[in-house]
Specification:
Layout (H helix, E strand, L loop, with lengths): L11 H10 L18 E8 L8 E7 L5 E4 L9 H17 L3 H14 L15
Antiparallel strand pairs: 1-2, 2-3
Length: 129
């Protein structure tokens, strides 16, 4: 029975983990195995604020068209989450738009090292860290 309250979809960390391993689920249309890994995970919990303990974007990918793709996970039950999430996404997108190709590469290498993956490997199993 619908109570008018938003559903609880689990915690944000769980949602981030699911998207990090299967980013193709963000695409429109049916989820096909071939669509699950054309995305490159550049980083998770990336600081975008110059101050210590500042904001961090949840996930950053490079999509199949080589465009940066920012993901901010939010739970369904938080009041006012839609407006604040949109503001956060705009702030994060503005910050990422200032990054150079080298900045993206450095973040990717950092993520690979954290996950103990060689960033230079060129194999289907290494299509994101």
């Amino acid at each position: 029975m619908y109570t008018g309250e938003p559903e609880d979809f689990g915690d944000e960390a769980w949602l981030q983990a699911i998207v990090a391993i299967s980013p193709g689920i963000l695409e429109e249309g049916p989820v096909l195995p071939s669509r699950l890994w054309p995305w490159l995970l550049v980083g998770e919990q990336i600081p975008v604020s110059p101050q210590e303990g500042g904001d961090a974007l949840d996930l950053l990918f490079i999509d199949p068209e080589a465009l940066p793709f920012v993901v901010e996970a939010k739970r369904g039950k938080k009041r006012g989450v839609h407006r604040s999430a949109i503001g956060q996404l705009l702030d994060y997108a503005a910050a990422v738009s200032q990054w150079s190709e080298q900045d993206l590469h450095d973040q990717f290498v950092k993520t690979c090292m954290k996950n103990r993956i060689d960033p230079e490997l060129d194999s289907p199993a290494n299509q994101g860290c």
